[in-house]
Each structure stands twice: as structure tokens, then as C-alpha cells.
Amino acid sequence: MVIVHISAECYPMAKAGGLADVVGALPKYQNKIGEKAMVVMPMYQTAFLQQNKWDVHFKGHTNLGDWFFDFTIIKESTGKLGYDLFLVDIHGLLDRPKIYGYPDDIDRFVGFQVAVVNWLTQWEVLPDIVHCHDHQAGLIPFMMKYCFDYQKLQLVKTVLTIHNAQYQGVMDWAKSILIPRWDISKKGLLEWNNTINSLATAVKCADKITTVSPAYSQQLKFQSNGLETLFDNEQGKCVGILNGIDNELWDPATDSMIANHYNASNVIVEKKKNKKALCVKYNLDPNKPLIVFIGRLVGEKAADVLPGAIQHALDKTNCGVNFFIVGAGETATESALNYLVQLYPGNYNTFIGYEERVGHEAYASADFLLMPSRVEPCGLNQLYALRYGTIPIVRDTGGLHDTVVDMGDPDGFGIKFLNANEQDIVYSVERAIAVYQDKIQMNKMIQYAMQIDHSWESVVIAYKKIYESIL
Ligand code: GLC
Fold this sequence. Notes:
Blueprint: E1 2-6, H1 18-32, E2 36-42, H2 47-51, E3 54-64, E4 67-76, E5 84-89, H3 105-120, E6 129-133, H4 140-146, E7 157-162, E8 170-171, H5 187-190, E9 191-192, E10 195-197, H6 198-205, E11 208-211, H7 214-219, H8 228-233, E12 238-240, H9 267-281, E13 290-294, H10 306-316, E14 322-327, H11 331-343, E15 348-352, H12 356-365, E16 368-371, H13 381-387, E17 391-395, H14 398-403, E18 415-417, H15 422-437, H16 439-450, H17 456-470
Parallel strand pairs: 1-2, 1-6, 2-5, 6-7, 7-11, 11-12, 13-14, 13-16, 14-15, 16-17, 17-18
Antiparallel strand pairs: 3-4, 4-5, 8-10, 9-10
Bound molecules: alpha-D-glucopyranose.
């Protein structure tokens, strides 16, 4: 089966969040079971672009409204990723250092999608599945079906995977001129609340929709940033498939980004060494339980609640615990988190920014990972944490609901709470401190966590079944 993944992010080319990890791993594991899966994404100016070799694969010409442009499709030349990676180069529009955050992001991603569909129509043998990820690829199923120039793609099956429905690619109707000549009788498919909504359009037009966890698929009917009735109507097309993690990249026994390697048999001793080094580097106390937060400092992750909750927890426990924050995001939250560094020297620190290496070091050193997310479609960090023997403390929502069992359960290996507020977090931190002191229980949970299997091998079979159901 030939599967073309279309995404705004893909690790290691460009990563802003979990979307990149998934799109960078899923095709690799699909190819291992004999599929022919590939990724198409924009060519941003990233380090990976500069440090690797690329072949020119295709040159095309098309237009975005009244702007006519040339585009080039380049391909990673060694095949080392385990799948073909194609980049769409649109000079002046996509070739910038950042993935998101420009005033013309709408035009950039519509331009990207137009170029991709234009290229696909010129394939001699069409792919079996066009697999779109999130709203940045959300207009593609519509374009394939209802744009006059792309009639050749009308029967090619499309799948949409929703990694995050909070972002929807909403644009004013004036932007409709950016979509190449389309069948006006299908206007209703673009329409949502007097705007064009790329995600809603994809939900209406794709042959199948997957969400990145079963719980999230249900949750969207009640909480999806305005699309609740749509998800309620389209529930029949929706399936939740829990993400996998790349066990080759995320393996504490071989991870090249950590100093002391370990597996379940020597985790206690070796992890302690990592923790000690991290604590020396960031002025923390290795003798206290270490809780880390790793992620974007945004409202969705409830990062705004962290400064208050951490301060409260440190005061209440007389600094009986340490915290380390890794991430970047909203300025107010960054400042509030940084401010605490002077208040609690030796017990609290931050690494504002994101470096893959610091993330890996933190998983390999910490005792607990805190994820108070307000919205968490799947969440990969808790899965990485489990693999590294780090106990997750999570809010009971979306994928966190599906992947963490509270330690109150006989086979529990985590701590779950209901509300993204200070009170619930502080209470959970106290539970963490208590279990940390109970070495037998703590070790049992670490052992249990490390053997849980979230590898992609079984997940790709679930995707295969989805494809087969529509072919
Ligand atoms: C988004 C979601 C996250 C999910 C990831 C990969 O980043 O917020 O929950 O794990 O996509 O699917």
C-alpha cells in the first residue's frame, strides 16, 4: 500500500510538539510491515535541512489566488529515516526558520497544500492513501474531491488524524480565492460559523478520521473548541488509535543523549547517577524526589497553573521535593516560572527553551513527570516517562486517561487527579512524596512502568485496518 503522510511537522526535520514525533515514526514502522509510507512537509530553514543531502525530485508551477509561483519538491537522499521524506520548497513563503507564528500562516499552509495536491496529480501511479495530519493539511481531502484541476485524485482515499482539535486553521471567506477553482455547490463543506474552517472541512470530507487516543475521540463531542456538534454527527467516521512511541529513539539502554544507560534491572542505581548529574548542573538536591515538567508552556498544558502550584507545594512540604521545568511558551508563564528560581535556590530550576537533549536527560533523571494538561489528545511525554521509569502524575483527560493507572489500583503505576488547579496538583505532589519514601512500592511501580509496551508495532496494524476499511 502506498501511503502519503502530509504534515506541518516531522521529527527530526522540524518539531514544535508531539505531532512531529508521531509523523517521524509512524511511516518508519509502517514500512517495516511492508507498506510504502512517506512524508511530505514544508521546507523550513532548519538545521536538519542544512546538515543533510537532498535530491531535487520535482519542479512545479501553480498559483495561490493571483500569486503565481514555482515550487520544488526535494527528497532526503540517503533514506536513513526509514521512509522517504519530501520537502515542499516555496521560496518566500515556507522557507523560514520557524514552523508557525507568522502573520501569513494561513497563506503559507494553503500554499503548501496547493503545491502538494498539484504534485500528486502528476504522479503516474496514484497513492492508495493520502493521510493528512491536523488542520495544516485539512483542506487536502476537499481539494482532491472538489477542485476542478485535481479531478484525477477524486477517488484516492483520505484519512485525517487529529492530534489537536484546539487549532483549526480558521480563515475569513475572503481567503476562499486561495483555493484553486472549486465546485461552488460544495460551499457548505468549507463553511463553519461564517468562516472557512480547515479542520471542520477535513472532518466532513475525509473518508476516515482518527484521533490519537480513544478517550479523546469521545471527548471531542463535548470539548472541541466549537466543533462539538460536528464531531457528534461524524462520530461514525471517528476511531481512536493510541499513539506509539519510537522505542529505538527512546530507549534508556541505548539513548545517546543520556550519560548512564539502564534497563529495568539496574534502573535504580543508574538513574540515580543521572539524577545526581542533573542536580549538580541545575543546582537541585539529589536526595529529594525530583518532579519534572517537560512541554510547551501554554494554557492547553495548564502551564499557567504551575508557578502557583509549585510555590504552594514547596512551601507546604518545607521544600520536601524538587521541581525542574523544561519548555518554552507564553511569556507571562516563562517569567513567573523563572521568578521562582531565586525564591527556592537548590530546590527548583528551569530550562526555558527546548532542546531534545535536555528532555531526554530529564526523563532519565527524574522520579516523577507532572502533566496537568487541560487538553491532552494523546500525550507522548507520559509514555516516554514510563519507558524511562519515571512515574507520571497526570490530569485524568484524553490520552492521559487511557494510558495511566492510578497507584490506588493494585496494578497502578501513576498518580491521577481531576482538576488542573493548584489544590489537585499540591495534593498529588504530596502523594508522590509519600510513595517516594516507600521504596518497595516505588520500585514496584518503576518496574511495572518500564515493561509497559507502547511500541508502534501494534499501532501500525490498527492503521492498516483503517486503510483497508475504506479501500
Ligand atoms: C499533539 C497533542 C498531543 C499528542 C500529539 C501527537 O501535540 O497535543 O496530546 O500526543 O499531538 O499525536
